[in-house]
Design brief:
The complex is a heterodimer of chains A (94) and B (316).
Chain A (H helix, E strand, L loop, with lengths): L6 E7 L6 E8 L3 H12 L7 E6 L11 H5 L23
Antiparallel strand pairs in A: 1-2, 1-3
Chain B lengths: L2 H14 L12 H20 L1 H5 L8 H26 L5 H9 L17 H21 L5 H29 L3 H20 L11 H6 L7 H15 L11 E3 L4 E3 L5 H11 L3 H14 L1 H24 L1
Antiparallel strand pairs in B: 1-2
Helix pairs in contact in B: 2-4, 4-7, 6-7, 6-8, 6-10
The chains are: A alpha+beta (94), B mainly alpha (316).
Chain lengths: 94, 316
């Protein structure tokens, strides 16, 4: 039985100054091959200036079933947003 | 409380509210299976779709046409890879997907079981086959499964050039010699009805449509998409001074009628009896088997590099 090439997640910086963004995944034997494949699969039309690859097994993701309790603490904290604060009419630069 | 029923209600309510389903979210088994079937069939179509065109790379009439055809075929490989990755997020492996193609368990679009006989066919494939595919793909950009929708957005951006380069090939032929014009019309005639059948069987015969619409995997029915494609192509063909077989304007419906389609023939091709089914599958299997040593060598090299790095760390 042939062994499957490992799966990698690909992140691309589309232009200097922007974040790397997840674009998809691919199979490759090692990191170098993953970068080269990512170039051919995800940047055929100059979509990127930089590539990150990470083997998918190394990614730990939160469980969508737990998202309610996980994100619940931020729910009742309206005071973290500027609109929570009341200011006099006509005030400027604040 | 019945937990599965509850989960199903939450799932359907997300769909109804246009919230995308993501890989780790709960989904009904049938939704997962339908998606694996549809996405993999779509991926296989991109991969097998390279074959009729690959046949023409060495015989393009100019260098301009050659670079375009090469780029188009490379895109198709890319599209296949985006889609395989999307399917893999549903819990099937790449090896399983390929195995299902090679054993004939999974299907690909029947259109690729027809031969590309003349250079004009490269035009018809781009204009009609890719044109029909785009109608379907634009709809799928809004499909309910996140990874599939994202792959489709990427694909649609790239597909437009395929469509246009095909039309340009036909346009050039349509302005050429009598023999070239004849070749152009003959090719359109041959591809037209198979292209219309790419949208799948009529709605009343399509077993998957109802559930797929409820789950918003599909957003429009086969017949709706087919009619839209006919109306668009019937206008475009005028710029070629060519005709589409059996297509007539219908004043009362405000659409073009397109005549009867031979669905017995369609199912016969799906079942493996088209002109090129065997040839296409044999070519895929051969390419996969001949590439085995490359995959093995790449893995062996990666393993060796890893060991070398580890021993360097130890001695340092």
């Amino acid at each position: 039985m042939e062994k499957e090439l490992p799966l990698w997640e690909v992140f691309i910086r589309s232009r200097q100054g922007l974040d790397h963004k997840h674009v998809g995944s691919l199979h490759a034997a090692d990191a170098q091959m993953a970068i080269e494949n990512a170039r051919d699969v995800y940047t055929r039309r100059q979509e990127g200036v930089s590539i990150w690859v990470v083997e998918s097994v190394h990614i730990t993701a939160s469980d969508p079933a737990d998202s309610d309790p996980l994100f619940e603490p931020a729910k009742d904290k309206a005071y973290r947003h500027p609109t929570f604060y009341q200011l006099p009419e006509g005030i400027k630069h604040i | 409380m019945d937990t599965t029923k509850n989960l199903e209600e939450i799932f359907q309510s997300k769909i109804d509210h246009e919230i995308k389903i993501e890989p780790k979210d709960w989904m009904p088994d049938a939704y997962r299976k339908t998606l694996i079937r549809q996405i993999s069939q779509h991926a296989h179509s991109e991969i097998v779709g390279m074959l009729p065109e690959g046949n023409w790379i060495t015989r393009t009439p100019s260098l301009r046409r050659k670079v375009a055809l090469l780029a188009k075929i490379q895109d198709e490989a890319g599209h296949g890879l985006y889609l395989y990755s999307a399917a893999e997020t549903l819990g099937i492996t790449r090896d399983q997907l390929l195995d299902e193609l090679h054993t004939g368990k999974a299907k690909y679009s029947s259109i690729f079981n027809y031969p590309a006989l003349t250079w004009a066919d490269m035009g018809s494939v781009g204009w009609l086959v890719d044109g029909a595919a785009i109608m379907n793909q634009v709809m799928l950009c809004r499909t309910s499964y996140g990874p599939y929708a994202r792959a489709m957005v990427r694909i649609c951006k790239e597909e437009s050039f395929h469509h246009r380069q095909g039309f340009e090939i036909l346009l050039t032929l349509s302005q050429g010699t009598e023999a070239q014009k004849k070749m152009c019309q003959e090719s359109i005639n041959r591809w037209w009805k198979p292209a219309l059948m790419m949208f799948g069987p009529p709605d009343e015969q399509s077993s998957n449509t109802e559930m797929s619409m409820k789950w918003k995997i599909k957003r429009e029915t086969n017949d709706e998409l087919r009619q839209r494609f006919v109306d668009v192509a019937a206008e475009q063909v005028k710029f070629l001074n060519m005709t589409l077989p059996d297509v007539v304007w219908n004043e009362s419906t405000g659409h073009y009628d397109f005549g009867a389609l031979d669905w017995d023939h369609f199912w016969n091709v799906v079942k493996g009896n088209g002109p090129c089914n065997k040839q296409r599958l044999d070519a895929r299997i051969k390419a996969h088997e001949n590439g085995a040593w490359v995959r093995e060598a790449a893995l062996a090299f990666a393993e060796k590099q890893k060991i070398r790095q580890q021993s360097q760390v130890k001695t340092a």
